[in-house]
Amino acid sequence: MNPRPLRWGILGTANIARKNWQAIHLSGNGVLTAVASRDAARAEHFIAECQSTVPLPVVPRACGSYEELLTTPDVDAVYVPLPTGVRTEWVVRAARAGKHVLCEKPCAPSLPDLHLMTSACQEHGVQFMDGVMFVHSARMAALRAVLKEGVALGELRRVTSQFSFCGDAAFFSENMRADRHLEPQGCLGDLGWYSLVFTLEVLGSRLPRAVTARVLNRIGSPADPQPAPPSEFSGELLYDGGVSASFYCSFLTGNQQWASVSGSQGHLLLRDFVLPFFGCESSFEIHKAAFEVSGCHFAMEPHVRRITVPEYGNNHPTAQETRMFREFARQVASRVLNSEWPERSLNTQRLLDACLESGRNEGRPVLMA
Fold it and tell me: Is the pLDDT of residue 217 over 80?
C-alpha cells in the first residue's frame, strides 16, 4: 500500500510559490490542501490564478491568516516563501504546530535566527529543509559523481560563480527583494546564497579558513544613514591547502548564472547552475584545453566533453523543483529526521553572515576556523 500523500500548505503568496504549486502537484507523493495570506481575498486570488493555469483535482482552501493554516489538521507540511525578515517567527510557529518545514532561501536574517528555527524543528520532531532546488537535480548528482571520481579535473583548486540579473526601476521601488526590512541581505541573500551552496556542495561542505568580501553597490541613496542592503556584491573564500573560491552577485548586471570548478587537469563549467535553461535535458561541460607547439605553429585546442542528463529545465515531473518536493515527502514518510539538510543550511548561513560582515567592513578578513 502506498503511503498517504504529504499534505502541503503554502504560507504566503510570493511569486515563487506559483512554480511550486505545480511542483507539489507533479511530485506524485504530495497534495496541496491550503494557501494562507494575511487576508483571505489575497489567498483566494492566488488560488484562482494558479488553478487557471495548473488546475488541481481538489481546489486548495484559502486561509485568511497564517495562524489559521497552522492550526488546520489537513496540513502536514508547510512551504514558507515569506520574506526573510519575518520568516523566523513563522518557521518556529510552524514547528511548534507539528508542521514539517520547507523554507525559502536565504533561510534567516542571521545565524542565531536560523539556530532558533532549526532547533524548534528538531525539538518538535519535524523536518527542516531550505528551498534550493538545484541540489536535488539529476545533473547535480552526475556532477558529484565526476568530482568523486577525481580524474577529469585532477586536484581541485578553484570554485567560482556568478548569479545576476538587472532590476528595473519598478524592481527597486516595489519588489520586496529591494526592501531592507524584508530582505536585509539584498542580493547576497537572494542570489549569493546559491553560489555559497554550490561552493559547499563542490568542496564537501567544508567551511573556508577566512573570507573577504566587498559591497560594490547598495540599494537606495548613498546618503542614507542606515546600512543599506547590497545590490552588487563579491566575495573571496580562502581554504586550507591553497584551495580558493569566489563569487559575484548583482541586481545591476544582466542575466548570468554560471559556475566553474577548476582543477590541475581541467575545469568543469555549468552555464545555468541555478535555473536550468529550457529543454528536455540539462548538462555541464568538462574542458581540458591543450596547448600544442610545433615549430612556429602555436595552437590552443579546446577539448570539450559535454555531459547530459534527461531532465527538463522546469515544470515537469523530472524538473529539479519537483524532485525537491518529492524527496522531502519521501523523507517525511520514512519517519526519520534528516539532520544533513538543516546542517547544510546552517553552514550556508555561517558563510553568508561572514561575507556580509566582511563586506560591511570594507573587505576586512573574517576568520572562520
Answer: yes
What are the tens digits of pLDDT across the range 74-120? Answer: 999 999 999 999 999 999 999 999 999 999 999 999 999 999 999 99
- Pair 260, 160: CB distance under 8 Å: yes
Q: How far is CA 340 from the centre of its chain?
A: 15
Size (the chain), residues: 369
Q: What percent of the chain has pLDDT over 90?
A: 95
Spatial distance between the Cα atoms of 16 and 231, rounded to a whole number of angstroms: 20
Backbone angles phi, psi at 237, to 5 degrees: -115, 125
Measured distance CA(269)–CA(285) in Å, rounded:
5
pLDDT recorded at residue 222: 59
What DSSP element (H or E) covers 316? none
The strand pairing partners of 249, in sequence order, are: 163, 233
pLDDT surpassing 80 at residue 304: yes
Residues ≥6 apart with Cβ < 8 Å to 352: 106, 185, 188, 189, 192, 193, 196
Active site annotation includes 105: yes
Q: How far apart are CA 325 and CA 28, in angstroms?
A: 9
Active-site residue identified among 99, 105, 148, 288 = 105
Q: Residue holding cell 560591511?
A: 360
Q: Given a cut of 60, is residue 128 above it in pLDDT? A: yes
Backbone angles phi, psi at 34, to 5 degrees: -155, 150
Distance CA 245, CA 238 (A): 7
